[in-house]
Protein: Protein-methionine-sulfoxide reductase catalytic subunit MsrP
Amino acid sequence: MTIIHLPKSWNVPEREVTPETVFLNRRRFFKTLIGAGVGSTLIPILGCENAEKVNSKLALTLNQASLEIVKQNPAFLTVDRPMTEQTIAGQYNNYYEFGSTKSIWQAAQALPTEDWKIEVTGLVKNPRTYDLDDLQKTFPLEERIYRFRCVEAWSMVIPWIGFPMKSLIAAVEPTDKAKFVRFTSYYDSKITSGPFWSLGRKLPWPYTEGLRLEEMANELAFFAIGNYGHKLPKQHGAPIRAVLPWKYGFKGAKSINKIEFVDTEPATFWNTIDSHEYDFEANVNPNKPHPRWSQATEKFVSTGPGLKWEKRPTLPYNGYGEYVASLYV
Ligand code: MTE
Structure:
């Protein structure tokens, strides 16, 4: 595959950076409102300057318990564009188990997250089933602000809370035979209300995704259990999802309940549906068009009341080339 040499992605114009202080102040403002018992009525979320009246039902889905963050990873505190409003990110989602539109946030509330277990299995020395408590006790939580880019060409900036995938690798110790990992998402056709068929094809539920082991071990690869300072809302893939900021969003499986280390490239949901449209590798690449549309530019959701899109050039590897380009030499 073609390697694209990037300018250092973190050398970004000062005017475009969302400073940490702005983010922290926004968060404090939000917490103050919740603390004052404003959580169940129409509330402005995330910042005086862009305060927006939101539907109270949406606010309830976003108002999850706060998470104690051990550190804010200094390498991932700023990006080259403003952070997306929580209320926009929380009502413009892809989660096909709950429907094929972007408006699944209400349907996704049917996801049962109590007593969640994640089985880590396959070619590892220490197979283990974790519950969420175990995960939080074993892996210190940190916060990272990442660019997020969907294969459909829309993009956002999201502050995630979680832990690097390499910490899980260290805990379970894959054997020498393990070359790939496969993530499986929750699925129960009695509860999930999404389609069984699309474009004449039976959808290969459950949703699965995968990585090469080297990709999983990369510094950027992350498991998120929260965003915007709170536990993950269901529409974002509660209670735990994969976040891979240099790849298209479909690689980041939501609501994971099984992680399997395997020796051959695993079958995955979108790749099984159409391998030309949804590469197993699928890195953000402006020079590799999707068969049905260009990837040269993206639609970045800008801040402000309502959905507004701003056209921007796509950055190779979504701007994270300095971390990941060497994986693809
Ligand atoms: N995971 C599951 N289980 N089901 C899905 O439909 N959609 C993917 C990814 N993970 C999806 C999924 C796609 S296409 C995208 S762009 C992102 O989730 C969207 O994440 P967000 O809704 O939190 O922005």
Q: What stands out?
A: The pocket of MTE is lined by residues 93-97, 150, 185, 207, 236-237, 249-250, 252-255 (CB under 6 Å).
